[in-house]
Design brief:
heterodimer, A: 115 residues, mainly beta, Immunoglobulin-like, 7-stranded mixed beta sheet, B: 108 residues
């Protein structure tokens, strides 16, 4: 059983389109994240949800809208796609611990290519 | 805001050579984590260090957390081709912040 699963693995789309990526975790974790990894491998946090509540919202364009219907799911919807949105998007989950974040479990990633 | 810097960005070594990546935080950390990402894969947790001056070993990998809890290192002894990948540190203060990663290439 995959612990953190995200779909689709690959998206190829035109500029201006809207797309969604879904993520589910079966680890019972309270916190879920979206990370963006660019071509230089930088991992940048975009959003973090704890028990369906948004707790981190980094400087991300309004075109990106996360949604957490329950604590096991965190989806990412992107409107009006731009060339610079091309990247690999990773979903992750963790169980927060005293003194800091617990270990992160990452999904396999969704590679988005905007043409 | 919290910044975590990691060097070098790239490292090429001959198989059998040692490798070290360094991580420095602008703020004192409550803990530091290390991850490995194989080419085409996703980051996988390796270890977490919590105590000042802590040293942990996993086979050929040695992880250190600085006395001031602002820096850390990962040392691999006698690299193998299976060590290829990008190594990330991630420092936890208010939130978890990833370093920029070190991409390791091991030449056979």
């Amino acid at each position: 059983d995959t612990a953190v699963s995200q779909t689709p693995k690959y998206l190829v789309t035109q500029m201006g389109n809207d797309k969604s990526i879904k993520c589910e975790q079966n680890l019972g974790h309270d916190t879920m994240y979206w990370y963006k990894q660019d071509s230089k491998k930088f991992l940048k946090i975009m959003f973090s949800y704890n028990n369906k509540e948004l707790i981190i919202n980094e400087t991300v364009p309004n075109r990106f809208s996360p949604k957490s219907p329950d604590k096991a799911h965190l989806n990412l919807h992107i409107n009006s796609l731009e060339l610079g949105d091309s990247a690999v998007y990773f979903c992750a989950s963790s169980q927060p611990r005293t003194g800091g974040a617990g270990e992160l479990f990452f999904g396999e990633g969704s590679r988005l290519t905007v043409l | 805001g919290q910044q975590v810097m990691q060097i070098p960005q790239y490292q090429h070594v001959q198989e059998g050579e040692d490798f070290t990546t360094y991580c420095n935080s602008s703020t004192t950390l409550s803990n530091i984590q290390w991850y490995k990402q194989r080419p085409g894969g996703h980051p996988v947790f390796l270890i977490q260090l919590v105590k000042s001056g802590e040293v942990k070993k996993q086979k050929r990998l040695t992880f250190q957390f600085g006395e001031a809890k602002k820096n850390s290192s990962l040392h691999i002894t006698a690299t193998q081709t299976t060590d290829v990948g990008t190594y990330f540190c991630a420092g936890s203060a208010r939130q978890l912040t990833f370093g920029s990663g070190t991409q390791l290439t091991v030449l056979p």
